[in-house]
Amino acid sequence: DQQVKQNSPSLSVQEGRISILNCDYTNSMFDYFLWYKKYPAEGPTFLISISSIKDKNEDGRFTVFLNKSAKHLSLHIVPSQPGDSAVYFCAASDTGTYKYIFGTGTRLKVLA
Amino acid sequence: GAGVSQSPSNKVTEKGKDVELRCDPISGHTALYWYRQSLGQGLEFLIYFQGNSAPDKSGLPSDRFSAERTGGSVSTLTIQRTQQEDSAVYLCASTLRGQKFQETQYFGPGTRLLVL
Predict the structure, then answer these.
(1) Shortest Cα–Cα distance, B50 to chain A (Å)
(2) pLDDT for position A1
(3) What is the DSSP string of A5-34?
(4) Which 20-49 residues of chain A touch chain B by CB within 8 A?
(5) Which of chain B's residues have a Cβ under 8 Å away from the Cβ of A43?
(6) What is the DSSP string of B1-58?
(7) Is residue B2's pLDDT more than 80?
């Protein structure tokens, strides 16, 4: 049972436009959510996170939105840059446990 | 250290051989995680260490997999009698405090294992 789902395996966006990556989860106990970026042959690197007490967190060009009622989060990248081309993973955790559950990733390609 | 390091970066082995993968977490991080990423899949949780203890080993795919952590630092993941389905990227991550804290996991570059 996939508790964290990223239903779009890939996304292409023109440079300068907005990239929106989506993630859905099923476990209502999740209270902390993270986005990671992964380049080929490297480990995932942390991008941005959000606690369930918030519905938005912003860091520069990156904003994460959380809709708890829909069990949905999204990552917005504005403006998109070619260097943003990577695989993006969302992850969720229930703070009471040690587990971080990852989605299968979305490959973003930003076209110059 | 500056970040999480893993060795070897690549490992090619023959079916049936044993392999040992190593992870050096960030200095001072008490929690350590092992994940596996098979081709086209997400990150599959394997095991978690809080200090030298592994409270839950249920993520390990079979009894051919084992892991240990010594001195609250270095961890080794051992796969005995490797099978072709063990081929994957094995990732290690660490956090400062672990369970019950909202923390960022810091990942190593991974070990790419290919079982022929």
Answers:
(1) 9
(2) 67
(3) E---SEEEEETTS-EEEEEEE--TT--EEE
(4) 31-32, 34, 36, 41-46, 49
(5) 4, 6, 91, 93, 107-110
(6) --S-EEE-SEEEE-TT--EEEEEE--TT--EEEEEEE-TT--EEEEEEEETTEEEE-T
(7) no
